[in-house]
Amino acid sequence: MTRPSQKPSARSKPSATARRPAAPSSRPAAHDAHRASSATKAIRADRQLVERCLSGDPAAWQQLYRQHHSRLTVAIAKLLPDQQNDINVVDEIAARVWYALVRNRGELLSRFDPARGRRLADFLGGIARMVARHYLRSERRRRRYERAGARKLTCRKTVSDSELAATFDEFNGALTASEQHFIKDVLLSAACSQLSEGQRCSGSNLWQRRHRLRAKLLRFLLDAEPEP
Known about the structure:
The protein is mostly helical. The chain has helices spanning about 15-20, 25-55, 60-80, 85-105, 120-155, 160-175, 175-185, 205-225. It contains eight helices and no strands.
């Protein structure tokens, strides 16, 4: 007795449509190509901006500042400990970064190499990390000097107004004429807006002169104070 023939089920005989592999989508590749093209254009724009700055174009320096200063201050704030993360410290470190970039006709900025595939913002962030570390070390040294000076001063009797005035006059006499004018017209002035256009200082220049005077005053006080 012969068995009746059975028709093959749909499961044993897949359709031609089911056997055909799905065609790979071209969207991811196109998206990656678009991103690579955008990154290349951005790096090319960074290189052109740096070349204009190095050629001495003031408008290029202004554009560089506008494009990167805000992001630079955000990056600096993330580098600082919580107790030192205030706007004054951030601005001071940012001023040091910009001064380092313009110093020696942009020698540091000329080290930017777009061939490495890094954006200009990453390059500036690396400089900010270096400057912030140097700032924190110098601040630790300054606090040690100030504590040493404070310990010496506590061994003395109370300083009278006349002694304080005499000490200031002695220190002021050891300064240059330019430094004396800076103390009188800027540090002891009620408002720097009263200065003439030729006397006004940029942010980085103001910081440099204040920093030099503070260091001179600290050395003067430590040298002038006799041992107990």
